[in-house]
Design brief:
This protein has 19 helices and 15 strands. The chain is an alpha/beta fold. A seven-stranded mixed beta sheet has the order 1-4-5-15-10-11-14, sandwiched between helices. Strands 8-7-6-9 form a four-stranded parallel beta sheet, sandwiched between helices. Strands 2-3 form a two-stranded antiparallel sheet. Bound molecules: pyridoxal-5'-phosphate.
Length: 454
């Protein structure tokens, strides 16, 4: 009999705890600094933005943190998510490698983002919060928080990056269906948005700007908190349910990955699939290659500087040490909107500096080509962001073919692209341009990095 295609875990085997990689790091990640004092931030500095439970998770060094039962109850709507052996893609590539993908597109919003939206909404509700402001790039995070807000009775306002707002009207309709309010960013609703529109009324927006707007609203309204869909330690930790399930499913398959691949925007789905495997290694287990794939038009990990920087454009956030292209850098309006962020998660950046992960960058046309091959062999149309992981996995499989090696490759198919079909239409019509990032703008943005004594 041929090897099975799907590996499904019973609901009773859904992980009960998140994995916190901070417990196993050989060197702790650099502290988050207050931009005024340049001293490490404390819980009180973050309290206007986040409920205390999430602040505690942000700095926790406990290895395991329990997933509250009401959160697990919601997760059971779609989790455990399937692990699939990509037999047909392997055949199409003629590779001796075994390719597995963890499919996160089965969630109600169509990506991995509800894995953190649901607990964030839950902790806010438990803290008595009634309103949340957030940003969204691709619309995946905004619709995930809108979904989670609907479950826990929270009013959600989403500042959606202008280019995505224009490219993806149905993501907005989805957010509104869940009851959220969606605003194109930069907007006239905040000081940050008004200042940017005064300079350029046609500004395409960026995640950095949308974050500024949402943070400003939370910081200036007592009844409103802020939620972030990536980058922060607690967000990355919430995603580790992905990798933990994958470990159990690969055990069912009798395989152990040699290479783990994920796409990186802010780093959360990549952390989700890879941190549990890195944890095994850091606790004395076998070394695997862990590969982050980013867009060549916004290459923070491969071309950015490892330095303290702001998380947003208007400089309302604390300073974190990360790979950054500069907080004022506006990436070109390419289609993987969720990957248009100037920085990278501090934990992912730290692991890169420690040599524990690798990073590569690809242009969008090559990623769409990979996504179309995947759709034509496996059936699922990946999100444009996920196409970067597909491309990374295909490159590894083709290397195995050249080298005659039968390695096991695992990648995170972090979302489907059903709301991204205009991007696919543009790709098929030959209208997508592979824009390199603007060296001059990058140099200017990096020149503006805050100066922090070493
Ligand atoms: C489907 C999808 N994948 C990936 C990303 C990038 O975020 P992260 O690197 O945090 O996973 C996004 C962000 O919006 C997304 O929507």
């Amino acid at each position: 009999m041929s090897a099975p295609t799907k590996y499904l875990l019973d609901e009773s085997r859904m992980p009960t705890h998140w994995y916190n990689i901070q417990a196993d790091l050989p060197v702790p990640a650099p502290a988050v600094l207050h931009p005024g004092t340049l001293q490490p931030v404390g819980p009180d500095d973050l309290a206007p933005l986040f409920p205390m439970e999430l602040i505690a998770q942000e700095v926790s060094t406990e290895r395991e943190i329990e997933i509250p039962e009401p959160v697990r109850e919601v997760f059971r709507l779609w989790r455990p998510a399937p692990l699939v052996r990509a037999h047909r893609l392997e055949k199409a590539l003629g590779t001796p490698a075994k390719i597995y993908y963890k499919y996160e597109g089965v969630s109600p919003a169509g990506s991995h983002k509800p894995n953190t939206a649901v607990p964030q909404a839950w902790y806010n509700q438990q803290a008595g919060i009634r309103k949340i402001a957030t940003e969204t790039g691709a619309g995946q995070w905004g619709s995930s928080l809108a979904f989670a807000g609907a479950l826990f009775g929270l009013q959600v306002t989403v500042y959606q990056v202008r280019v995505s707002y224009d490219q993806k009207p149905y993501r907005r309709a989805l957010m509104e269906t869940y009851g959220a309010r969606c605003v194109a960013s930069p907007s006239m609703e905040t000081n940050a948005g008004r200042a940017i529109l005064a300079q350029n009324p046609e500004h395409p927006g960026s995640l950095g700007i949308a974050i500024s707007e949402a943070v400003e609203v939370a910081a200036t309204h007592d009844d409103t908190k802020y939620a972030l869909g990536s980058v922060l330690n607690h967000v990355l930790m919430h995603q580790t349910i992905i990798g933990q399930e994958a470990i159990a499913q690969l055990e069912m398959a009798g395989d152990d990955p040699d290479v783990v691949v994920g796409c990186t925007g802010g780093g959360s789905n990549f952390a989700g699939i890879s941190f549990p495997f890195l944890g095994l290694q850091l606790r004395g287990g076998r070394k695997r290659r862990i590969v982050a794939v980013e867009p060549a038009a916004c290459p923070s990990l491969t071309r950015g500087k490892y330095a303290y920087d702001f998380g947003d454009t208007a400089h309302l956030t604390p300073l974190t040490k990360m790979h950054t292209l500069g907080s004022t850098f506006t990436p070109p309006g390419f289609h993987a909107g969720g990957l248009r962020y100037h920085g990278m998660a501090p934990l992912v950046s730290h692991l890169k500096e420690l040599g524990l992960i690798e990073a590569v960058a690809y242009h969008q046309n090559a990623c769409f080509e990979a996504g179309v091959l995947f759709a034509r062999s496996e059936g699922i149309v990946p999100a444009p962001e996920a196409n970067h992981a597909v491309k990374g996995a295909i490159e590894e499989a083709l290397r195995c073919k050249r080298e005659g090696r039968s390695e096991v490759i695992l990648f995170n198919l972090c979302g489907h692209g059903h709301f991204d079909m205009s991007a696919y239409s543009n790709y098929m019509a030959g209208k997508l341009v592979d824009q390199p990032y603007d060296e001059k703008e990058l140099a200017m943005a990096l020149a503006g990095l805050p100066s922090v004594p070493a």
